[in-house]
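ok here's the first one, seq then C-alpha cells
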Amino acid sequence: MRRLLAALLLTACPAGAQEVSDLIARDGLSGARAALEAQVPAPDRDLALATTRFLGGIEAAFHARHRIGATDPLVPLPLLGASLPPNPDPQPMTADFITAMMRDLSVAMQDTRDALPDAPATLILDLRDLWLDVDGDGTRGAGEDLIALAALPPPEGGAQIRFDGADIHWLRAYTHLIEGVATLILAFDPEPALAGRIALDAALADQFAQPPGQMARAPTFDSQAQAFGPVLDRIAVVLQTLRQQPDPALTRAAGDHLRAMVAANRLFWAEVAQETDNDREWIPNEAQDAALGFDLPPGTGPLWLSILEEVDQALEGRMLIPHWRMAPGHGVDLAMWLDDPRPVDVIDWLQGSAALPYARPGLTVGRDNWDRFVDSLGGRAGLYMLLLN
C-alpha cells in the first residue's frame, strides 16, 4: 500500500526541478516525457514537458538519419548538418526520407508550443544529463550526449542551467525557427530529387554487378567516386529540389513562422532585460552571468534584435534583399516571393535574371548591424547565432 501511495503521489505532484534532469539521464527523453505526461498540469511541469517534446523532435530527426546511415553532415542546416555516431547496418533510404522527417519535426515543434505554460515557470537541467537516443536502442551510447551532438564546447565549470519565464519565449522562438525551415523544405518537395538519387544508385549497382569483360582494362574511377560521389549527390539533390515549383501555401506558412520567431525573440529580450536575479542563467543580461561560462559582449541583446528587426522587415516586404547586380536603391522583395514563389534556379538567381520578377526600388537591408555583430563576437559569431536564434 505504501508503494502504491508513493506512486500516486509521484504522479500527482510535479517533478522537482532537478528531478527532470535526473529522469532524462536515467530514462531518456521518451521515459521522462511519459512520466511528465502522467503528472497533473502545472507551469513547471508544462515547461519540462515542452522541453522533452522539443528535444524529442530533434532526437527523432537524428534517429531517422542514423537509421539509413546518413551520419555525416548532409547540408549546412540545423539537424541536417550534425555529425552522428556511425551505423554499421543501415537500412535503405526511401524517397520520402526528408519529407517524413520535416513533417515529423513540424509536428514536434507544434506539440512543444502546445505544452508551453502561459504562467512563469522554472526548469533546472544539467547539460551533462541530456542525451539523444540516436540509434534507438534505449540506452545511452558513445556519441549520444547532447553536448557532443550539438558540437558545444565542454562547459567551463558547472553545466546546470535554470530556465525561467523569459526562456519560455526563447524556446517558442526556436520552435518557430525550426518549423519555418522545415516548412520551407516541404514547400519545394525534395521527394522527386531523392527518388532520382535512389534510381541512380540502383543503376550503378547493376553496372558493378556485371562481369567487367574487356572493359576491365579501362581506367577505374573508384577512388574519385568514393571521394566525390556522396558530395555531388547532395549538391544535386539540393539543386534539383530548388528547381521544383514551391507550394505557395507552405512558403507563406514558412514566412509566418519566421515572423513569429522574431516576435518571440522580442518578448524574450524584453523579459531578460528586466531580470534582477543571477541564478544559473541560460542567456544573461548585462548584469548577469551565463551558467555555462561564456561572455556576451555589452549590447549583444539590442544588436541581435536590430538584426532580427531587419529580418522581420524583409519578411514583410518593408525592406529589400540587396542583389549584387542591381543598382543602389533596388533589391529583391522577399515577401513577394513568399507570396508568389517560383522555382529557384541557383545560376539564374546569381546571374540576376530570375530575380527580376521580384525586383523593385526601395530601402535595402544593410550590413552595418551584421558587421557589428560579427566584429563583437569574432570567430564565435556562428555559434552565438545558433544560441540566440
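and now the second one, same deal
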Amino acid sequence: MPKLTVRAYLGLGSNMGDPVANIQHAVKALDDAAGLAVDAVSPIFRTEPQGMRDQAWFANCVARVNVDDAFSPEELLDVLSGIEAQMGRVRTERWGPRTIDIDILLFGDLQWDSPRLQIPHPRMFERAFVLVPLMHLAPEIRIRDLCPSQWLSRLRYELKEDRILQATNVISR
C-alpha cells in the first residue's frame, strides 16, 4: 500500500546574507528531512519589508511539500524550526531581518488553532508576498472559499516582474 501524505504549502523568506541561496538551502533541507518531499517551488520574488521597513528587501517563495500523514502540524513546525536554527535563525525582533523564515501556510484542508500554530496562517490573506507565489503553484486552491487571485484582489499591491510592492497590509474593501 502506498504511503499516505498530506499536501502542505510553506512560505519561505530571507533577507540576510544571500537570500536566494538561503531559500535554496532551506528547500534542500526540507526535501532531505525524513517524512517530507518537496513537490514544487514557486518562483522567488523580491519583496519590500512589511512591518519593520528599515531593513533589506526579502526574497520570498512558496513550496508545496508532501508530508507523511503521521506528522501532526506541530511536528512539522518542529522540523521547520530545526531547519531555521541550523541555518542560523535568531529570533530577536518580530518582522525583523532573518536568514530564513519558514511558515506553514496550509496543511491539507486542516484548520488548526493552538498556542503555537494557526492554520491557515492567519496573516497570509494580507500578504501579497505569500499569495502571489501561492497563485503560481495552486491558482485553483480554495482557502476560506476564495482562491489566491480573489484574496489578492482585496489587497493594494503591485507586481513588477519579480518584485512585489505592497503599500499596506490593510485589506481594501
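notes on #2: The chain has a mean pLDDT of 90. Helices lie at 19-32, 73-86, 128-137, 148-152.
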